[in-house]
Every structure is written in structure tokens, then in C-alpha cells.
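Example for tutorial group B:
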């Protein structure tokens, strides 16, 4: 299921990139460029999800011999692309707000104004995840060979780090971006409604496009945020703070890929 959805969504993203790249749409250039960046980052996230969730099921050789080697790097890269996708939508909302407000900050360029800060933040925020797992080896009587397997580091099993992961994820991947997206788009909707007659069709299309993306992001992140709140509750009500519900984490990432 996730394989089919990932392929379809990646193809849709490619079509969107080509459309915004070669079609002369009457649209804010920075806004259109941000949409292309969002499609690229979202496609990278889907590829990561395929490598993490689908390919181990489809290929036994990949699961046994390749997956344990690449997952310690693949998991943080997946988190980086997920964070980048979410904050890219926030960047779209800000650009739309500047555009509809006729601010001097509008249309100043997408990469240095928005994408570079988003990438830097996404990498820095998720950088500790590179130290969560490592590849170890055990001798297999069946294979008569040393077989790789994943092992959690002491850093990841630390209660302090687990508490940091839960708290920072709730704030920077839940409360803060959700609040900014909801408030900013309510302001945009009010401005669009007050000036509906004076707006061109392209302006209305940009607003509709943005609302659709924001709603998709909010809905797709609800399971992950609910899981995060549940884990915080469990951390405060039990003696152990470690993140032991890995299957729920996997489920939340699957829902993000499908949504």
C-alpha cells in the first residue's frame, strides 16, 4: 500500500515541479519556487519511507544485509525531510501573507530567504538522531557468517535524551508549527475575504492551493502529535521515560506517508 502511494505521490510531485518550472503561471515567483521546493522535499521523504518501511518487506536480502547498515543514517534523514516539509509549508504561509499584505518582504527569493534557514534548522534539530543507532554483528549458525543487526546506543537509551526527544518534538513539530499555520492562515483568509472582489483569479488559486496544503499537513501530523502527547503522558506517569512504543512510531510515519 505504502509503495503504491509513494510512487503515485512522487509522480504527482514531479508533474507539479515541471508545471511550475515550465508553465508561465501568473503567480508570485517566490511562492511558485517554494511549491517546487516542497515537492522536492516531500518526494525525498517518500523515498526515505519506502526504504525504511516498504523495501524491507519486499526484499529479504535488503532486510538482512543492507537495511541494518543504512538505517542509522536513513532514520535521521527521514526526520530531516519530514521537518523540512512541515516548515516549508510555514514558509509558504509567510510568503502568501507578505504577498497579500503588499509587504516589502514579499518575493525576495525562496532559497536564501526561506529554504536555507529551513534546511539548517531541520538538520540541526535532527542531528542527534545520527547517534541513536549503530550497526553491530552477530555470528549466525544458519548463514555460517557474521550477520549485521541494529543496536541502540547508550545515548538513545538515556532517559534524559528520551525526555528531550519527546519535549522538543511536541514543541517544534507540533505546538509551534500548528499554531503558526492556523493563526497565519486565518489572517490570510480574512484578508482574502475582505478584498475578494479586487483579487485576481491567480491570487484566489494561490490561496486555495495554500489552504489545501496546510490542511493536508495538519491532518497528516495529527497521529504523530497524538502519539507524542501520549508518550509525554507515559513519561510523566511512569518511572521509565524511554521511548519503548516503537511500533506506534512506525505507524505514525506510515500515516504521514499515506496522508
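The residue assignment follows.
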Amino acid at each position: 500500500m505504502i509503495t503504491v502511494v509513494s510512487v503515485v505521490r512522487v509522480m504527482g510531485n514531479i508533474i507539479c515541479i515541471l508545471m511550475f518550472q515550465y508553465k508561465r503561471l501568473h503567480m508570485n515567483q517566490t511562492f511558485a519556487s517554494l511549491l517546487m521546493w516542497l515537492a522536492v522535499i516531500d518526494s525525498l521523504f517518500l523515498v526515505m519511507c519506502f526504504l525504511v518501511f516498504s523495501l524491507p518487506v519486499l526484499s529479504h536480502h535488503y532486510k538482512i544485509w543492507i537495511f541494518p547498515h543504512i538505517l542509522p543514517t536513513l532514520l535521521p534523514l527521514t526526520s530531516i525531510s519530514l521537518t523540512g516539509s512541515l516548515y516549508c509549508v510555514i514558509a509558504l504561509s509567510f510568503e502568501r501573507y507578505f504577498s497579500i499584505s503588499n509587504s516589502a518582504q514579499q518575493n525576495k527569493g525562496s532559497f536564501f530567504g526561506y529554504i536555507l534557514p529551513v534546511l539548517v534548522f531541520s538538520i540541526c534539530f535532527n542531528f542527534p538522531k545520527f547517534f541513536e543507532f549503530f550497526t553491530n554483528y552477530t555470528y549466525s549458525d544458519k548463514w555460517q557468517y557474521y550477520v549485521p543487526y541494529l543496536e541502540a546506543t547508550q545515548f538513545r537509551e538515556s532517559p534524559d535524551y528520551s525526555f528531550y526527544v519527546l519535549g522538543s518534538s511536541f514543541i517544534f513539530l507540533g505546538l509551534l508549527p500548528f499554531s503558526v499555520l492556523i493563526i497565519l492562515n486565518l489572517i490570510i483568509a480574512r484578508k482574502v475575504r475582505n478584498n475578494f472582489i479586487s483579487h485576481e483569479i491567480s491570487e484566489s488559486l494561490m490561496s486555495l492551493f495554500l489552504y489545501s496544503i496546510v490542511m493536508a499537513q495538519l491532518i497528516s501530523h495529527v497521529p504523530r502529535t497524538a502519539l507524542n502527547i501520549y508518550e509525554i503522558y507515559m513519561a510523566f506517569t511512569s518511572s521509565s521515560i524511554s521511548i519503548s512504543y516503537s511500533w506506534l512510531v512506525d505507524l505514525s510515519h506510515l500515516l504521514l506517508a499515506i496522508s
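Residues 125 and 168 are 9 Å apart (CA to CA). Compare this with the pattern of hydrophobic and polar residues in the output above.
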